[in-house]
Amino acid sequence: MRRNYTLKIWLIFIFMVIVFTIIKPVFISPRNLIHLLTQISFKGILALGMTFIIICGEIDLSVGAILCISGIVIVSLQKTGAPLFVPVLAGLGVGVIIGFINGMLVAKKHLPSFIVTLATMTAIRGFALLYTEGYPISCSDSTFISLGKAKFIGIPVYCYIFVIVAIVYHFLLSSTTFGRKTYAVGSNIESAKFSGINVDRVKIELFALMGFTAALSGLLYSARLASIAPTNGQLYEIDVIAMVVIGGVSIHGGSGTILQTIPGILIFASLTNILTLNNVNPFYYYMVKGLVIIIALILQGGIKWKFRDYRFLSLFKSNHVDNVSGGKSSNE
Amino acid sequence: MNNPYLIKMEEISKKFDGVIALEKANLNVKQGEIHALVGENGAGKSTLMKILVGAEERDTGNIYINGSEVNFKNPLDAKAAKIAIIYQELNLVPNLNVSENIFLGNEPGDNKIKIKVDHKLCRKLAKERLAQIGADIDPGIIVEKLSTAQQQIVEIARALESNADIIVMDEATSTLSSKETSKLFEIINKLKEEGKTIIYISHRLEEVMKLADRVTVFRNGSNIATKKISEVHIYDIVKIMLGSNYEEFENMETRKRKNVDKSRKILLKVEGLSRKGHFEDISFELHQGEILGIVGLVGSGKTEISRSLFGIDLNSIGKITVRDQLVKINSPKEAIKLGIGLVPEDRRRQGSFLSRPIIENLTISSLDILNHWGGVLKKQKSLDRSTVVASELNVKMSDFNQLLGLLSGGNQQKVVIGKWIIRDDQKILILDEPTRGIDVGSKALIYKIIRGLADKNLGIIILGSEVPEICRLCDKVVVLCKGKINAYLVGEEIKEENVLSYVLMK
Questions:
Q1: Which residues of B fall within a CB distance of 8 Å from A310?
Q2: If A49 and its partner were Cys, which of A213, A250, B8, B165 is the partner (CB 3.0–4.6 Å)?
Q3: Cα–Cα–Cα angle for B325, B326, B327, nearest 5°?
């Protein structure tokens, strides 16, 4: 069933490519395809990380803000003249720390991730604006700038990094205990606990991974622009969530794969690209994006076996929300 | 009268994604009777009722009520025709109060534009309605704070408020204690006296024998027989239900009880275990190869004991010794490390990952032994182990990538048990109500599995409220009453009457 969905979404993508090529033959040209790849790499990396978060049944709205703040840390630390690895590690570290904080608030304080990350997103963005006084700052490290410009067989290096991240994350999700635990927590958090999984730890690790992923994207982003502005990465979360949802990763958690997110990313990017090629007014993009998300959700349908909150059926009064027992057993 | 039957369902068929749920099923219900529907899981009872009230569409067949054909498109149509259904999973709004729930969408008052609800009137009427069925529940109380039994009563009151003449109850007693159940039966009998017709679906045949006038037995999507309760014995019904499986079930009934053998190694020793407000001063020993039963009614604290032993609830005091080693169990992970496994009472909520493949469900608790360095899964080993366990437990499935949610309840339970068997360092298995919500045929298989595990020298603890089941299975029985040990029975002392008297005795 899941395999069917993966196949379906790839077929839809191929169909789109054919249609777009007929509409605008230039779509299939190597130049345009490379352009397309450069456009999606940053959001694409975010979408790969977001796949984990959504499978776990959570959401992270702070990815765009983390991308930005990590970029700012990397670019401004370059001005101190420290060797390049210092700002790079600091930038990635900031991402991990913010992700860790998100995870702690979600797991330990039982706060909804939607609100937690909405708050961290706002706070980080505010700090970015305050620190830069609203102006972009430019990179000063020449190695760093050349990294952003470097190409291999005509394709920018950061595109390869996107591909590598995709492979690594696919492996992480499909072939490691960490991946299994992610699915388990997203599918049924209570069962996960009864199976000996440290649910809080899994969530914290997932948000930290997302933070790292966003910081990595910020690193590549600032290298490519050779600068960073406090408004960079704004509204990225919408596109990123759209990419994951288009791929058919269940928004209720518990199912989905990286192999679904990848066509999701590609479909989303091709759609933006074809609109650009046809000189459509960019204001329409938002409407199209919104429409596409809704269509994707409709196609996903409801997940049948996701265990919903049956808390109110509990027989026992309990002080711990998570400790309620004695729900209903299923029969038919 | 020219139509002897109030409800007549003829040749109803229904398929879900090619799987037959009902095949030419018939049902005839007389005016004013309590008509029970029994059958194994997936026999089609619930589906038939959903079709009756229009919650599911039928593929073929006709439905007549009072002789005239009906065709409900949704439960609202059925409600208008005075048919109410109370589902297995209660459908109350937890944060509204009792009267608001009873009158939800049906608020009384003469103003046509229902902008303002007359709460005073609602409560008054609700009180009357509840009193009418002999229930003493404050209509102002928030539903969330009620016990399940009380919620069930509120559901019934709601059904009556819609002036239903026909009330369908699906597994109404599956989570009720025996006291609550008898209260519910009083109410049902009262409704019958008022001339209401009741269709009662249940797994508990003893209840059906007590309550119903007639019973229709379902098997594999068809009605096999309809009998007058006064004319049949409970074993006749079991026979009809099980068909060819019956012999196997009978063989399971006779089992030689193991004598308590002091030479066997003690796996688990619990001394003076207490958790405030739940259980007090619990002590027992579990030897290798033994099946220990802990029996008690809902609220006797048996589930809480298992939660403490498995490291889910932490604030308990007392001594737990696992294989001569004094331990403190702080998390399920630590419990697993000590060789303890738990099959929780609520399979759906606590035991299974229905949206995940079978293999992931089987291996989820053994990830620590099924990985290379750095957490990379040993996929071949996982598959090999799963294959062994699945064939040992006779799990019926198409392949390991099938989603667990597609299996029947009994097979799901086998998978949940299987996830502990897959570990070879497993020493102690705690099963909380292992056969709840499972049809009789699968029950026999689960019993067989449990005995097989005991023969392999595992120590088994079964927590349950069904006394016959416990008596049939266990070598030792601890009887709990209100969180305290009321009796500790071994050998010949384990008899149904004996255990029952201790369960009920204060």
A1: 89, 349
A2: A213
A3: 105
Q: Measured between alpha carbons, how far is B1 from B8 in angstroms, rounded to an integer?
A: 15
pLDDT beyond 90 at B417: yes
Mean per-residue pLDDT, B408-412: 82
C-alpha torsion sign, points B323, B326, B328, B334: negative
Torsion angles phi and psi, residue A139, rounded to 5: -75, 150
Residue for token digits 């009357």? B128
Type of residue numbered A268? F
Cβ neighbours of A303 in B, within 8 Å: 355
Q: Where are the domains of chain A?
A: 2-323
- Residues 275-304 in B contacting A (C-alpha not used; CB under 8 Å): 298-299, 303
pLDDT tier, B3 (very low <50, low <70, confident <90, very high otherwise): low
Rounded CA-CA distance B355/A251 in Å is 13
Task: Name the nearest CA neighbour of B419 among B465, B492, B353.
Answer: B353
> What mean pLDDT do residues B358-366 have?
93
Say what angle helices A199-225 and A177-187 make with each other, to 10 degrees: 110
Residue A306: list chain B partners with CB under 8 A: 354-355
The alpha carbon torsion through B381, B387, B388, B392 (nearest 10 deg) reads 160
CB contact under 8 A, A325 and B346: yes
Which of these ranges, A35-44, A240-249, B213-222, B230-239, has the smallest mean pLDDT?
B230-239
Question: Is B356–A303 a contact, with Cβ atoms under 8 angstroms apart?
Answer: no
Instruction: Please tell me the distance in Å from A298's CA to the nearest CA on chain B.
Output: 19
Domains of chain B: 5-252 (3.40.50.300), 255-339+427-506 (3.40.50.300), 348-425 (no CATH)
The verdict on B174 touching A (C-beta cutoff 8 Å) is: yes
ipTM: 0.83
The span from the CA of B7 to the CA of B31, in Å, is 8
Q: How many CB pairs under 8 A join A and B?
A: 159
Contact B360 A327 (CB under 8 A): no
A313 → chain B, closest CA residue:
B148
Hey, is the C-beta of B347 within 8 angstroms of any chain A C-beta? yes
Q: Worst-scoring range by mean pLDDT, A27-31, B426-430, B438-442?
A: B438-442
Higher model confidence: residue B107 or residue A37? A37
**Domain spanning A2-323 has what CATH number?**
1.10.3470
* The three-state (H, E, C) secondary structure of B348-404, written as one string: HHHHCCCCCEHHHHHHHHHCCCCECHHHEECHHHHHHHHHHHHHHHCCCCCCCCCEH
B56 close to A (CB below 8 A) = no
Cβ neighbours of B19 in A, within 8 Å = none
Count other Cβ atoms within 10 Å, centred on residue A83. 9
Residues 6+ apart with CB under 8 A from B321: B266, B268, B269, B270, B271, B327
Lowest-pLDDT choice from A147-161, A291-305, B95-109? A291-305
| Confidence at B482, pLDDT banded by 50, 70, 90 | confident
- Name the residue among B203, B333, B355 with its Cβ closest to that of A187: B355
**Which residues of chain B are within 8 Å of residue A181 when distances are taken between CB atoms?**
367
pLDDT reading at A41 higher than 50: yes
Give the one of A198, A307, A328 whose C-beta lies nearest to B175's C-beta.
Answer: A328
State which residue of chain B sits closest to A190, comparing Cα positions. Answer: B350
Query: Which of B246, B227, B245, B292 is closest to B428 using CA atoms?
Result: B292
pLDDT at A290: 86
Contact A328 B88 (CB under 8 A): yes
Q: How far apart are CA B375 and CA B370, in angstroms?
A: 9
- Flag if B335 and A196 touch (Cβ within 8 Å): yes
User: Higher pLDDT residue, B275 or B156?
Assistant: B275
Q: Specify whether the CB–CB gap between B454 and B460 falls below 8 A.
A: yes
